[in-house]
Structure formats: C-alpha cells, structure tokens
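RETRY 2/3 - previous attempt timed out on the joint model. Re-submitting the same 1364-residue input unchanged.
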Amino acid sequence: MIYLEAGQYKTTYEDDQAIFPIAQDRYLVLAAVLVAFVAVPLVANEYWLQALLIPFLIFSLAAIGLNLLTGYAGQLSLGTGGFMAVGAYMTYKITTAFPELNILLVFIFSGLIAAAVGIVFGLPSLRIKGFYLAVATLAAQFFIQWLFNKVAWFYNYNPSGTITAPPREVFGVMVTGPEATATVRYLVALSLLVLFALAAKNLVRGRIGRSWMAIRDMDIAAEIIGIRPLPTKLLAFAISSFYCGVAGAMMIFLWLGSAETLAFDINVSFQVLFMIIIGGLGSILGSLLGAAFITLVPIFLINAPALVGVHMEVALERHIESIVFGAMIVYFLIVEPNGFARFWQITKQKLRRWPFPY
Amino acid sequence: MNSNGKETLLQVDDITLSFGGVQALSHVSFDVAKGEVLAIIGPNGAGKSSMLNVINGFYHPQSGTVTYKGRSHRQMRTHEAAAEGIARTFQNIALFKGMTTLDNIMTGRNLKMRVNFLWQALHLGPARREEIEHRRYVEHVIDFLEIQAIRKIPVGRLPYGMQKRVELCRALASEPDLLLLDEPMAGMNVEEKEDMCRFILDVNDEFGTTIVLIEHDMGVVMDISDRVIVLDYGRKIADGTPDEVRANQAVIDAYLGLSH
Amino acid sequence: MELLIQVFVAPFLDMAGSPVFLLEVIINGLLTGVMYSLVALGFVLIFKASGVFNFAQGAMVLFAALTLVGLIERGVPGWLAIVISLGVMVALAYAVERWMLRPLVNQAPIILFMATIGLNFVLEGSGQIAWGSNVKELDIGIPDASFDVGGILLNEFDIYAALVAAILVAGLAVFFQKTAVGRALRAVADNHQAALAVGIPLKTIWIIVWSVAGAVALVAGIMWGAKSGVQFSLALIALKALPVLILGGFTSVPGAIIGGLIIGVGEKIAEVYWGPVIGGAIENWFAYMLALVFLMFRPQGLFGEVIIERV
Amino acid sequence: MTHRRTMLAGMLGVVFALVFIAGPVAAQNDQFFPLLVYRTGPYAPNGIPSANGFRDYYDMVNKRDGGVNGVKISWEECETSYDTKRGVECYEKLKARATVVHPFSTGITYQLIPKAAVDQVPLWSSGYGRTATADGTVFPWAFNAPTTYWAQASAVINYIAQQEGGMDKLKGKKIAHVYHNSPYGKEANPTLEVLAQKFGYELTLLAVDHPGQEQKATWLQIRRLRPDYIYMSSWGVMGQVAVKEAAAISFPMDHFIGNWWSASEAEVVPAGSAANGYKGATFNGAGPNWPVHQDILKHVYNGDQAKAKENNWGEVLYNRTLVGAMANLEAVRVAQKRYGNRVITGAEMRWGMDNLDITAARIKELGFDGMMRPLRITCADHEGSGPVLIQQWDGAKWNPVSDWIPVMRDVVRPMIEQSAMEYAKENNITPRKCE
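RETRY 2/3 succeeded.
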C-alpha cells in the first residue's frame, strides 16, 4: 500500500494542478533529487561520473528535447545530432570570442541559436508528415555536420577543425576545461537538467503542451478549434532544438572536452530517438528512463563478462553486447510497447494495492 | 435583420463546392438567426458535412460567400473561424486520443489563453493564474454536461456516447457564438439521445448559443430545431419550420427515393 | 558578387563548355543511382506489405553479404553459397515473423520501427560473430575494366550492376503483377482485412515479403560488396537509400528506381560542379536537400499514394 | 504478461545495480598497458592488425625476457569501435593503472589531450592525433613521435620532387589531395598549401565523406583535372574504393601515394589487382622478415606461421604497433634507470618518454634493424621529425621504393610551434621551459 492515494483530497484547483499531485510522487522525486545532489557526489568516483552519470544527464536533456518535439508535438525528427552540434559549436565560438562571459549564459545563448536553426528546419513540417518528415530532418543533420566541418570560422581556423573546451570559471569554480573536476561538471549538468526538466514538465501541462498534443493526436481537429499548426509546430521545433543545443554544448564542455563533428553524427540522432521510444513517447520521466537504458545498458553489457569473471575477446564481447542489447529492445517492446514510463505507471498501480493481490 | 425580425448571425450565399468532378454543393443559400437552432437534414451524400466544413473554413468553396457577424468571407481560415467564435463537433469523433478528458476540454480554451511560453515554463504568476481561471470555466462546463467523474481518464478509454459528450464539452469550452454539431447523436441509444437533446437545448437556452446541427433522427430534429433545411444532391430543396418541412413534397420524394 | 557568379553562372557555363564531360557525369550518376535503388528496393518491399519502416535493411545487406563471402572463404562453391545464403535469409524472415512481427502485431508504426532497430543490432552483432569484422574481398567474376565510348569513360562493373538492378526490378514487377502471391501482397498493402478475406494468412505474407527483401539485400550486398569489399561499412549504405526512398515514395517499386536515378545524377552534378565552389563533400546533404525540395511539392514522394485529409 | 513485466523489472534492477559495481580495478604489480582497440565497426579492418601488433609484442617480451627488467607486462584491451564516447569509458576504466595510452583514433586523442595532463597519464599518438603536440613545451603529456602528418606531407612533396628530378620541377605540377572529410583527413591541408606557395605546384583539395563507399564524383573531377600526382589521406573503406576508382580511370598507380594510414593491406587486398603499383608512405618497414618477427613467431605462435599470418603478422599496421610497443618498453627502461627497476607510474613514464633515445645500435639489438630509424625525443620536441619511407604494393607485398626521405623541418616546425601557441592561448596554458 505504498501508493495509497486515499485520504489525499484536493480542495483547490491549484492542488489538483500541482506538478506531482500524489504525495508519494512528491517525496520520491524529492528524494531522488537529494540523492543526486548530495549522496552521489559524496560516493561516486570519477569513472562513475565521467563514464556513466554525466553522459546520462546530458542525453537525458537531449531526450527531453526530442520528446517535446516527437512525443508531445508528434513531429518525428532525426536532426537531433545536428541541433546538438549547433549548441556545441556556437558555445565554442562565443566563449572563445568573449572569454569573460559566464559559460552558463553562453550555453543559453547557444541554445537560442540552435532554436533558430530548429525553426528553419521545422518549416517543412507544415507540409511533410511522419516518416517523410523524419527523413527530411536528416537534411538538417547532414547539412549542419558538413557546415561545421567545412567552414573554418566555426572552429577558429585551427588546422584540424576540432573544438576544445577552454577552461572557464563560474563564481570562482572551474566548470569546464581539464581542471574542472568531474564532480563539479556533474553538478552543473545535474542542475541544468533538473531546471530544464522542470520547465519542460511545466510547458507540457499547460496551454502549449495541450496544443502540441492536440496537433499530434489529430492535426485537423486541432486546427478547427483554433490551434494554428505552423506556429505550434515551429514552437515545438524551437524549444526542442533549444534543449538539444544546450545538451550538445554540455556534451563538449561538461563531458568530452573536445570533439569533431563526428561526435554529433547521425548515430546520435538515432540514439536519442531510441531513448524516447523505449522510454516512452510523451513522457518527461520516460525520457530519463530511456536515456538511462540506452547509455548505461551497453556499458553494463560490455563489462558484465569481466564482472562475473569470464574473459573473452573484446570483439566477441562487443558483438554479444550488440546482440543482447538488440534482443532486449525487441523484448521490451513486446512486453511494454509504450515504453518504461507506462511500465512505471503500471508498477505504481500495483504498488497502490501492494501487498494485496487485488 | 432577417424576415423574422431577428438578428442574422450567419448568412450563406450561393455556395458551390466541388471535388474534382463531384459536385458536393451547388448554389446553396440560407441564413441563421442569432439564438436559433437550425437543423440540416438530407440523405447520405447530400453535402451536409461539406456545408459545415465550408462554414468553418475547412473547405473553400469555388463560388459564393459566407457572411458571419456581418463580415463577408470568400475564404475563411479555420483558425480565424475559431477565433470568431465558431466551434464544432465531428461526425467521427475528433478528440485528442492521447489526452485526458480535462486536457481535451482545456484545449477548447486555448484561444483565450495569452500568457507566453516563458511564464508557462516557470509555471508561476500569470501562467498559474491563467490556468486556474480557465480551469474554473472548464469545470463549469463539465458540471453542466455532467461528466465530472471522467475528468482524469484518457478519452481513448471512454465509451462512444461519453466521447461525444466530451467533444461537445470541448466545443462549449470555447464559449462559441455559433456551434456546429455534426450528427451529435449518431450511434447512441435512446437514453443517451435524450440526454444529448437536453444538453443541446440547455446550451441554447443558458448560453444563448446559436446551433447548426446535422442529424438523421427525424424525431430529434423535429423536437429540438426551430428551423430545418433539407439538402439533396448538394442542392437546397426545402427551408422552413419542422412542420413546414414535414409537409414539403420535394422532401418526401427525396426521402422516399431512398431506403431511409 | 563574385561568389554569386561562381554559384549561379560559372557551373552552367562549365557544363555548356564541355557537354561530353557533362554527359559522362550524368551517366555515372545514373549508374550510381541504380546502386542506391538496389538498397532502397528492400525498404519499399517491406514498407509496402507490412507498413514497417525497416531500419535493419542495411544490416540485412551486411548480414547477407557476410554470409555469402564467409561461405565462399570456407571453400563452398559460389552457386551453392548463394543458395545457402538465400536459405539463411528465408530463415531470418521466418525468425523475424515469429519473434518480432507476430508479438507486435497492431502496434503503432513507430514501435515496429524501433523493433527493427533492435533487429539491426542483433544482425550486426551476429553477422560479425559468425564471419568476423575483417574486410573480405568478394570476387564474383564480374569484369571490372573500363572502356571509352566517344570520350566517355565507362566501367563494365557499373553496367553489369545496372543490368542486375534492371533484371531484379523486372522480376519483382512480374512477381507482383502476375503471381497469386504477388497479388496477395498488393492486397495486403492496401488493406490487411481484405487480404485475410482472400484467404492468405498474414503470417505467410510477412514471411514471403521479408524473404524477398532478404533476397534483395543479398543482391545489394553482392553488388556493393564486389565494389567496396565486404565489411561493416556495408550496413551504412542504407543511409544512401533514405533520400531515394523519400523521393520515390515509400510504397513504390518504380519510385525506388526513378528516385535512385534522380538522386544519383543530382548529387554527382552537385558535387562535380558546385562542390569545388562551396567546399566539397556536399553529396550527402545535397541528396537529402534535393529530396526535401521534392517533398515540399509532393509530400507523399514522387510515386507515393496521395494523402487525402477528411474530417 | 504479468510475469513478463515482473521479469522485466527484475532484469532492469540487476542491470542498473551491476553498472555501479563496475569501475576501475586497483593497481597491480605489473607494468600495465591499456589498449584502446577497435576490432569491430566500420574501421575494424584497420583496428585489428593494430591491436594484434601491440598484444603480440608485449606477449613475446613476457615470454622471451620475462618482462622489462624483471617487471612483468600486463595489458587489457578495451573496445572503442572508433567511437569517441566509448573511448571515454575505456579511458576512465583503465587510466588509474595506465603507463601510457595509445588512443589509436584522432577523435579520442583530441579528447584526451587536456585530460591526460590532469590525470598524469602520458599519451602517445605515433603518427596521428594533434600535430601540434609535437611541441613538448605546450603539451608536456602528449607525444606523437616518430613523425607527424605535416612532416609526412612535406616528405611526400620531397619524394615527388625526387621523382621529377628536383624541387624546381614541382612548378606547375598538379597535385590533388583526396582526403577523408574529418579532422584526421584535413591535417595535411595547411602544409600542402604552404608548400604549394613555396614550390609553385597547383594544389586541389578533394574531400570524401565518411565512410566513402561512393566516390564517383571525386574521381570524375580527377579525370577532368588530370593531376600529375594524387596524395591520399583515407581511412577505412574509403582507401580501397579510391584505389579501385583510380584504376578504373586508368590513373597511373605509381603517381598515386597514400599517407601511412592509407597504405596498409586493408586498402590494397580488397581492391585486388587494381591496387598493383599503388604507393604509400610509412615510417616502418613492412613484411615479416625482420628478426623481431622471428622471435614473435617462436615465442607467441610456437612456430605456427599460418596462425601468425591470421593474426596479421608482418602487415603494415601490425609492424607499426610493434614498433610502438617496443618504444613504450624502451621508455619504461629509461624511466627505470632513474627510478629503479620496478613498476613505473604514468608520471615517471612521461619522464622516460621525454628522454627517450633509441639509437641505431639499440634498434639492432632489439631486432628492428632496417625496419625503423633511430628515434630521439626531447622535452621540447615530442616528434623527433623522423624520416619517411615510400613503399609500393606489387600485388602480394609492400616493397620499399625509396630511401628514407627527410621531412622539411624548417617549414613544418614553425607551423607546429605557432599552432601550439594558439592552443596555449585559447586554453590558458603557460608553456614549460625546456633546458
């Protein structure tokens, strides 16, 4: 009876519209945030942070971004990698031009530029739908990747065209660059994620979220009740690209430290799409769960044989990882096609009655 | 002002609409007085739904004009129509399947909400106030249509009759001046139909909403409408009070020619 | 101003200046386009019959080619290796139907799409476990010499590839139009219920269509493998087939061919004449941009079925 | 379904619990070398021989000599699939025990350069990575000896001049650079441009996108341009396709020169007879006919030549990493001379590398005579400006067709120092002083 709702009466619309109307949810989220902010930095070593947690946080943000566009507004996109690249390259460009500017502000500016780019590539969505649109967004993916590889201005004319995160401080603490500790970078990434996840949650439970879902569920009916498709879709593209742009900036400045355009290639776009499908379309929590699955499970699988003391050729390990991972995806889809978020909902319903079977 | 001395809300003038070679509507004219309940009837394929689609701007007629609230439109855009206070329901329910009843109805308030996305992202101050203010209105409509119990249920899981009711609720939430109902009672059992009739009349009464509806059930039509228009093969063949229409020979022929 | 001339005038002057070379570019573009079509065909078949956007098509090409070349390396004669590989692809189709499509029947297209991504990982892994990741030479005896026709250099291999593609398309056309199974497949494409009414189990249809797509993947694998060796990169050519697909329409076999030809010629002309001006290696995004521009005018692709919106 | 759901939940729980158990293992009593390899994925054909070279050399030294001065060598492979993000995980997992890291990917190298300095792990990208790391004052922890892309480009221009009969003959010659459209591929461009200005040849740059299976447009351009020489920086499938395309347009293969990553068996064997006559740069001799190979055959493969060949014994990339492994151990020895015959830490290893001097006599002793040139690294010079050899494929093996060609240090070194200074400025690094 962990999730007992009985006795929780809502007397105002405010309470009813609260972000987590059920008390247990509130405590759970609060506990998770506390653990993430306090416990994890105390116990995690650099491997955990650098190899598992920071990438998880960054991809979560990108997944939330894509979920706003695809899960909520129903516009399938494979341009995520491109929009992330915009964020990363713009951050590099701005912070090397204005080293004094607070790097977190630079993330936001770069996100805004990514949003503008997103709007441009969102224009075709007025006419093109479904898988056709998905493939059309690949034009954005490939064009952006080409642009940053080709135009030397974006990488300050260095000979190889790789961007490197320069050292930057925020309030006297090194946040990016080699001297920034993994813990600091983790905390920055976590704060940004919590902030933006909250904003996303707020957006989707208000007017904008409802118009996105209306367009997604039935665009014609939405139009007839007065939701204008183009501005609504473009806003989705803009906000989604903003999230992806910030995630891209974080990827270079809080995680990898340096990258070429290959770091934002088509595989990234696919990966983020996998995350939201497996996590649950149209769910913020699902984005996080999906990001956890796609970033952590392969790492687990590749290390699993060694953990149980089996030693095999790395190539074989990698292939087995690939097979098991693929099979897991198919299996999970068969068990719960609507993703982990739905799975969590069902579990919650069960917990509500637990330990009673009915 | 029309002949009855009432204010005219909507005037449809000489509308002709065709798809490819198929003539859906030809030279149809009629007007709707403010506060009236007007029924459009006719056999299948007579162009009834097309007529509604022309009124709210989803189809653009080849010729003719629609004059609404005194302004003539050759082509009305759908969202303009919505902004001007035209709402509608659909023959095949057009609810947003992935959303709850409450959210569906809240979309009806969309046009009246103004707070920009930054405030919404914060969900503070104006955004919060606005949500609550509109929620209050929506709850009013929910009470009116007696669907309090299904607020938080995704509409996809509701039975057919309930979905129809939610759809009406969504249309009402936008406080329309003109409500277009496309077969609001199709597929319902007798009790549900009675409920729906009551709601339609109450809406007309309480909110003063002008209603144009398409319906097949003659009994219902005769009971609730002030006036009836009959379409056949895209042409208007009769226009008058229920009694007048019932007595019209052309209408009788059109209906007898079919298996209804 | 100078840039404008370079972009909008100079390339056309260049084309007019040496029409023979332009012709050579176009012919090479057509021949390349045929190779893209080979991969796109597999997508179309599966999408047409089951509405599944098969992300694993590239992995199927790799898997088929790896199986073939692995068998040949182990001393199996060429013809037998092809037969066995075909058998493997049919077995794969059966497995896919049994363990993936059947449990997921009636799910949304995006879920099926995601499932094929899972399949993609499984195929990439198992293909490489069985046959290794090293690059393998695939020599199927197609001559590879070049010859000169009126100043235009052509490659025999490319001509053969075009012939193979033509035969394949003709074969598929006959299969779809003339055989009972083919007609049933078309019925399925139109309406699942109707197909059931004809009396053909959906299950059989799916196995057949995935088998045919597997065979097409084998052919594509052979042609691309002979061109660039059999190795992991084969799985990536699926990306070259996507613009072809959106251009031609997901459901049209002729669309895959015509789309391939347009993309092939378009990207070669862009790269040769505009590449030097704006920086080279523009082929990839140009193909997608070209497809995108087409879509703006025909949102359902060149030969896709027209989408009618109703309420 | 209920059971399935429960199972699913259970599985996920286990997965996430176990992930957090994984992590770096504590230090051991061996001299540990992490191997970031890629035996799978699009670049596996290049990654496999490279990985085998390292492994076999360490294995052989353990079996033949019992390690380095009594310290046993250990190593662990970690699969990166040539993916930067997987590289992070591998590096984090193995860095705590690492003596030296060879990232074997330009992307991973770039990413590790700033980290290595903080973690005190020396990086060695021999013949790849960031060219500017040749400046040891700005990059104390990164090495790219024996030579760099820029030096290589200058050596190839030198070679072309030799073929043509002198530097003055370069004037008016047309040279095309066909390159992999990535940071790696672009590395040679600035040098080739500077040299074009200096010697008056006409340079055309032609980019090929990853993975490079389809290059018709590039080769149409070449057919029209008719360059006198083609220089290529390819990787993966791109190389063999280019070789085939060149043969298809009847380009004279002996005027087609690949850089050292574009001239291994992976480029020529799949291309078949089309590749005959194709040339490539290298900084090691190819083939298995060197004394060290006999030791490997004896100690690692027990004389089984077929098995050795299966493991790329004697191939170009295999030989290159043999030399890399040997140089690693030499640097360990240098460090042991100062710190004692025990396990050397990363920081001590860096000192050893800074003072590495592999003389001709020592090369002979180690069984590498003729396969490589003497190598000397200093605090300021992490490259050594080693000379380059041109080899040619004859259909069965690579044969050297030139002497060791000197690089144009006078041109390249100032470029390196300038590039390093720009990096230092952007990243607030104060270059160290070298005596």
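The two ends of chain B are 36 Å apart (CA to CA). Closing ticket.
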